[in-house]
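LOG
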Amino acid sequence: PAFREAGRRGALGVVESTSPARRRAARGLPGCLARPVALGLLRTIASRSLGGQLVRQGSARHFHLHAPAGVDAGAAPSPCLVYEAALREALREVAGMEGAVDHMQCRARGDADCEWRAEWRRR
């Protein structure tokens, strides 16, 4: 769908605007060194570009967004697909992560905030 493609393309642009050296370190260093670098980059992308907060909870990463653009309680959750795709693409590009990004809470479903969860698994 168009919402997912917009999120994917937007994330690629944002990732490309970050430090190439930090991106290489996040992907090329051994895991124990790369993860803090990748998490720092992802936190920057989440806050500056997506307007949310990325937090670590064990092996999972949770992305919290208080008021996603275009999403109100009771509305269609389609704009959330933009954020979901952007988060998935940023995780793939910065950290080399694959896997599901689960939309755990959604303002369109009546929750207070939107929240996504992603496991930290390398390809």
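LOG (cont.) second protein
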Amino acid sequence: MARADDATAVGINPAGLAEIQSTIIQISNQLSYNAYSYTRAPTAIYRENQDPMQVTFPRVSNQTPWQAADPFFGVASNLGLNDWGFALAVSAPPGIAKMQFPLAAQDESENSGQRYMMVSRESLILNYSASVAWKYADRFGVGATLQWIHVPSLEYSLVIDGSTFPAAANPVSSNMDILSTVKGSSLFTFNAILGMWFRPVPHFQLGLAGQVVPADITVKSHLSVVPLGDLVGSVKLTRDGSLANDVTLTLPLPMVFRGGVRYRHMDGLREVFDIELDVDYTTWSRVKRLGIDANNMQATAQSSVLTLNSISIEKHWRDSIGIRLGGDYAVIPDRLTLRAGGYYETAVSPAAYFNVDNGTGAIRGVYLQGN
């Protein structure tokens, strides 16, 4: 983060663009394998005048673990100005774009551990960024990124118990289960990133940056419902007596604050190696819930009418702290550089609200790269 000196600086620390001495065209893509598996704990079904029945569940796994596209395209240049840097970039934010668990409308298994949790999610999100940076005498630099967040498509599916009777919730399955899917898009959400760096001596550098806008993505969506149980029949969605399926999904975005310290070992004017320690603080506590506004929509099934207003999927996430330590070593100057490091990030989701729709537990890992 203290050393953000290529086109990716637009999203990390835009002040680093002031260090660019030429024009850079940067194209990259990340291929990832995202295997999620779990076994739901056994639960008991209590029946009137009968002993409780213990129910166990098979292991379920993400059926779409491969993510082939996580692209970045950027152009950065000083435009011939020694103390300035500029950049334009298009990128997909980090994360898992698609997840699919083994439960669909045709699924006949009543003991699926995935029931009443997220069934599938597919999100296409693009960040369009424009950045500018300025430095003073190689001592300090400042920069800013203006960001347009575009969501071409967002789809989220969840199984709900369609029973309208009081205290009739079922822990395993119900003949009134419904597969509910929200699908929509969002054209524009504004965000901004500010950054700076300070180099008191040539071998030591500090960096600070932050994604400073408390933004919400508002997704104009359509709701579809497919009965899974044999007691529901068709479901009719209306508003004020007319057919309607429009809803609004709100996704709060966290703010992110970063700080970094970098030491670089010099041999004259040549950098031999560097070591950098970064700390991130992300305000995931903004995500108390995912909210769907149905605006007084009415769902009619089997002569029963249910009015839908605000629907909340509780999250209660917590702020997270991430620590990253890494470095570069110039094995062959200007020809071969080795990079290695490790990272750790605290859990976002409390255990009581842990879900499969986001990997919100503690995260740790290492990396090794050569170029």
